[in-house]
Amino acid sequence: DRRIKIAPSILSADFADFGREIRAIEDQGADWVHVDVMDGHFVPNLTFGPPAVKAFRKHVKTFMDVHLMIAPVDPFIEAYAEAGADLITAHVEAGPHIHRTLQAIRATGKKAGVALNPGTPAEAIEHVLDLADLVCVMTVNPGFGGQKFIDMTGKVRKLRQMIGDRPVHIEIDGGVDPVTAPLLVAAGADVLVAGSAVFRGGSVANPEAYGDNIRAI
Ligand code: DX5
Ligand code: ZN
Asked: Which residues form the active site (predicted)?
């Protein structure tokens, strides 16, 4: 369905209170929970291993969208599937075999996503669209929340055209806020990741701010 889904990224949440933060954003209307896995190699930051994702799983009632910013990615697919991911996204830039990587994700029974950094053309994934349930278009260079949006509307339009009537989500990730979101939805995106734009001004003590922020996007 083309209803727009909002997937708050817990990279912007309170790292001392993930359980309550996850429950708060879901109570306040999050459609998915976006989990940013970073290895300090593919991106210059380090976040969540499989044990952490397993702990998050206990609190996620909606849908756990796990974004693997790691290379190599194949050795960890099984572990994040076991940890309870509902969808696992790998970067096309993480290695030479994205076709095999997507096959490996699908073999775990999970949904499969492929992510494109801002410098990577849409054509890079043209030959794996039949293996993808989602294409994640990075609108920042990955590694951190709160970065400045990089306009990728042209790439989103091209992807929507390439996808045609296949059931493939286009997810936008990075710098999404009430100003940038409408541009991307108009271009064909249907899942919007937002970290700082959801968590800013709120807390587990003031979760209503999360709901206001989600509705504003
Ligand atoms: C960046 C991550 C994004 C990030 C989004 O590498 O993949 O999901 O957390 O945060 P904002 O919405 O603040 O740009
Ligand atoms: Zn992400």
From this structure: 36 (proton acceptor), 173 (proton donor)
The pLDDT value recorded for residue 1 is: 44
Nearest residue (by CA) to ligand 1, atom 3, is: 174
Atom number in ligand 1 closest to CA 147: 14
Tokens of 126: 């043209």
**Banded pLDDT at 55 (limits 50, 70, 90):** very high
145 in a known ligand binding site: yes
Active-site positions? 36, 173
Q: Determine phi and psi for 187, rounding to 5 degrees.
A: -80, -15
pLDDT digits (tens, 9 = 90+) for 195-207: 999 999 999 999 9
Provide the token pair at 156: 């989103």
Confidence band, pLDDT 50/70/90 cuts, at residue 184 = very high
Answer yes or no: is 9 a known binding residue: yes
Mutate which of 21, 45, 144, 192 for ligand 1? The one with the most ligand atoms within 8 Å of its CB, which is 144
Cis status of the peptide bond prior to 72, with omega within 30 of 0? yes
Query: Partners of 113 in the beta sheet?
Result: 89, 134
